[in-house]
Amino acid sequence: MTLLLTNIKELLQVRPEAPEKLSGAAMGELPTLKNAWLLCEDDHIKSFGTMEQLPEVPEAIVIDCFGKMVLPSWCDSHTHLVYAGNREQEFVDRINGLTYQEIAAKGGGIVNSAAMLQKTSEEELYAQSAIRLEEVIDLGTGAIEIKSGYGLTTEAELKMLRVAKRLENAYGITVRRTFLGAHAVPKEFKENKQGYIDLIINEMLPNVAEEQLAHYVDAFCESGYFSVEDTEQILEAAQPYGLIPKIHVNQFNSIGGVALGVAQNALSVDHLEVVTSQDIEALKNSNTMPVALPSCSFFLGIPYTPGRQLIDAGLPLALATDYNPGSSPTGNMNFVVASACIKMNLTPEEAINAATINGAYAMGLSDTHGSITAGKKANLIITKEIPSYGFLPYAFGSNLIDHIILNGKQL
Ligand code: NIG
Ligand code: FE
Question: Whose CA is nearest to atom 1 of ligand 1?
């Protein structure tokens, strides 16, 4: 199928030679073409240019984008989209004064979600998760990472990852899967955390690898969850299976997870609501992408990642939703981009770069996603008629998406 988008008011993130990631001052530049056309052939971008040199493509289906912007789909590099039920009651408990950590300490939180998921059949888990995936595709997400971590038994962890794999096959959206067995210590292992780590290493990891269910390995490296030493054991055990680390660090405390991630060549270190100068130094000259999750900060009322400070220190930054039932029950990347501007002082250019090119990097998808580049996937957002691209984060509560193109097909 050939698709020709014409009269595009402004085509965003145009990169004839796409960098694999953007850092520091380079994040402030968003190359665009005004009054543009874009040609998609099958599932990829073929070519683009300005309307003065519009090619004749008789076989193409033409979409007139007059007054509208076109940009690459969002790359959401951190989600827990596969889960069962919800945690609305804990939301109300927090309104009534309990903290996220207090709720977890009395048996709520991640282990609460795990109990629900263990009881849910694979079919039902698939059905619940598919609804969320359809929603985020409509909101402009064109590639997504999905973690396990609400199973906490071998069987339930495998069930989650199988569901994530089935979702990719059914919807055609690129799904990168991450094994997060070390998300919380299950109740049965409360007095024997090492026993649970041994289960992860000796039973879960070999099974995940055997079924080729994951690309990445993750751990919640945080006081009260998994220490730096625990995390290191797990990352090292995952390495022979080719699982690259992407880890939860510094959500509440800076305990050394960032330096560990860098030392283990993690693809990304995510959350970073609390960042020290040592953390910033550790990230400099590394290949590890810092990832901010502002909708988690919004929902839990915790500090926002100091994204401005990270970029001003010359670092790259990616943005993701953290879609999950406990700390971010939304997978809306448009809201994430807006809150990065509103709460983290990113410019619209920086936020869009963080949610496209740098999000793709944080999923190992730099070659195929995140920019308007010939040969990359034709995954596109066509906006409604808007005055400028800064209007996307500015009008943060409006749905400004008109159409979605996924794999070169209009949805
Ligand atoms: O990234 N912080 C760890 N994991 C998830 C939330 C888990 C939950 O509360 O269910 C997160 O925020
Ligand atoms: Fe998370």
Answer: 322
The two beta strands, 2-12 and 32-41, are antiparallel
How far, in Å, is the centroid of ligand 2 from the Cα of 333? Answer: 15
What's the pTM? 0.98
Where do the CATH 3.20.20.140 domains begin and end in the chain? Answer: 75-361
Cβ of 81 less than 6 Å from ligand 1: no
> Tokens 């995140």 map to which residue?
370
Nearest to 334 by CA among 386, 372, 383, 299: 383
Q: Is 325 in the pocket of ligand 1 (CB under 6 A)?
A: yes
Tell me where in the chain the CATH 2.30.40.10 domain(s) lie: 2-72+371-410
CB–CB of 265/232 below 8 Å?
Answer: no
CATH number of 75-361: 3.20.20.140
pLDDT of 365-396, one tens digit each?
999 999 999 999 999 999 999 999 999 999 99
The answer to whether the CB of 32 is under 6 A from ligand 1 is no
pLDDT digits (tens, 9 = 90+) for 233-286: 999 999 999 999 999 999 999 999 999 999 999 999 999 999 999 999 999 999
Report CA(242)–ligand 1 centroid distance (Å): 25
Nearest to 292, CA basis, from 265, 316, 271: 271
Strands (E), 222-300: 244-249, 268-271, 289-292
CATH number for the segment(s) 2-72+371-410 = 2.30.40.10
Q: Which of 113, 146, 248, 272 to mutate for ligand 1's pocket (most ligand atoms within 8 Å of CB)?
A: 248
Question: CA end-to-end span of the chain, whole Å?
Answer: 14
CA neighbor of 305 nearest in space, from 268, 250, 349: 250
